[in-house]
Specification:
alpha+beta, 3-stranded antiparallel beta sheet, 2 helices, about 30% helix, rod-shaped
């Protein structure tokens, strides 16, 4: 009959420490993987926010520009547009104008147009050759000139034309920088004018 050793059943300290170490390594790997997935999801949500914001911005700004007959004035952050000749006088009237402007203080881009109920006697006719369209179409110049909000959270709106003379331009371009969740993104857009 062979000799038997009296060994107590159970785990040694070394075996317990080894099991704890392996469990800790696995837990760290799982936590790192979950953190990476969470970070990627957050980045995707922010990127998606930028894409949606810029698509909405160009979806509102481009049609406002595209329907213009002529750019009457242009500066950094604004356009004054002659939309259509609705009266046969050959001159732009207040009801035929549109101004798109970025307000750096509020971070908004607004589209200013004559009020829908503008009376005929209040529909100012501007001399195409002599009018200062930048000054005469500023927000607040006339109670008949109302602004509609197009885009918010705009940090910068830089604009340009394809011709030095705004009235001969056929293409309008702009670069828009917006903020989403504390991050900034810039995209470039442009559109051709109707030019009739």
């Amino acid at each position: 009959m062979p000799a038997t050793t009296n060994r107590a059943a159970g785990l040694t300290l070394l075996e317990v420490l080894l099991a704890v170490a392996i469990t800790s390594i696995i837990a760290t790997a799982v936590a790192t993987m979950l953190l990476s997935v969470s970070s990627a999801s957050s980045y995707q949500a922010t990127a998606r926010g930028f894409v949606v914001r810029h698509a909405a911005a160009s979806g509102r700004i481009d049609p406002a520009l595209r329907c213009a007959r002529m750019v009457l004035d242009h500066g950094n952050g604004y356009f004054v547009l002659w939309i259509a000749e609705t009266t046969p006088n050959g001159q732009p009237d207040l009801s035929e104008l549109r101004r798109l402007e970025h307000d750096a203080n509020s971070g908004e881009i607004r589209c200013y147009e004559a009020a829908g109920d503008l009376a005929a006697e209040d529909d100012t006719t501007f001399d195409l050759a002599a009018a200062d369209f930048e000054a005469e179409t500023r927000p607040g110049v006339s109670a008949d000139w109302v602004g509609n909000l197009l885009v918010t959270d705009v940090i910068e709106w830089t604009t340009w034309l394809n011709h030095a003379d705004p009235r001969r331009a056929s293409y309008v371009g702009y670069r828009i920088t917006t903020a989403v969740e504390g991050k900034q993104r810039t995209t470039i857009h442009g559109t051709f004018l109707r030019n009739e």
